[in-house]
Specification:
Blueprint: E1 13-14, E2 19-21, H1 28-35, H2 38-41, H3 52-63, E3 70-77, E4 80-90, E5 95-102, H4 111-126, E6 131-137, H5 141-149, E7 153-164, E8 167-177, H6 178-190
Parallel strand pairs: 5-6
Antiparallel strand pairs: 1-2, 2-3, 3-4, 4-5, 6-8, 7-8
Helix pairs in contact: 1-3
């Protein structure tokens, strides 16, 4: 299989508690509702404060994403978008990077673990990738905990790696190899 004929990832993924589906322009109000919360965007490289126009631009970018390079899913629960999951695919390197965001009122309920786990499972099942990574600021304890819950290992600390909102931040990188995912998925299914 060459990098040009990789199968597509599903546009829709259903989990026990949420639905992942393509973004549409009608999602901008929902995106604005959760992204205007400064705590949600605190560790994201997005405009702060997040304005309604920023939601329109973000959604348009997601709608136009080339699924060969970046798969994006709106995370829908109870009929409204409450977050998103993305998978940036580096076909030539046979790896991908997962990204995620969630409305604060849903933090701590395991919903993002469920959604990101489903995306990682689909990616490893369908694509000949060898590794999936995740990146977070070192201060973003929730994202770090999520990466660890997904079976990822800490691979790097990049000191003073980027400036955001006037803050100089360290960045951590996590990753899971295909072999590790197989073991992790097997252990999950036994529970």
């Amino acid at each position: 299989m060459t990098v040009d004929d990789w199968p597509p990832l599903p546009e829709r993924i259903q989990t026990a508690r949420c639905r992942l589906r393509p973004f549409s322009t009608a999602d901008a109000d929902d995106v604005y509702a959760y992204r205007r919360d400064p705590e949600v965007v605190r560790n994201l490289q997005v405009a702060q404060p997040f304005r309604r126009e920023d939601a329109d631009v973000f959604v348009a970018t997601q709608v136009l994403a080339d699924r060969h390079e970046r798969c994006v899913w709106a995370m829908e629960q109870d009929g409204r978008v409450v977050g998103g999951v993305s998978l940036r695919i580096a076909r030539g390197k046979r790896r991908a990077e997962v990204g995620y965001e969630l409305a604060r009122w849903l933090w701590g309920r395991g919903l993002m673990t469920e959604a990101v786990s489903a995306v990682i499972d689909e990616a490893f099942r369908r694509l000949p990738i060898i590794k999936i990574t995740a990146t977070a600021t070192a201060a973003n304890v929730r994202s770090i905990r999520l990466a660890e819950k997904l079976g990822m290992q800490r691979e790097a600390l990049l000191r003073q790696h980027w400036v955001h909102g006037g803050r100089v931040l360290d960045e951590v990188r996590y990753g899971i190899l295909r072999e590790e995912w197989k073991q992790f998925a097997a252990a999950r299914s036994e529970q």
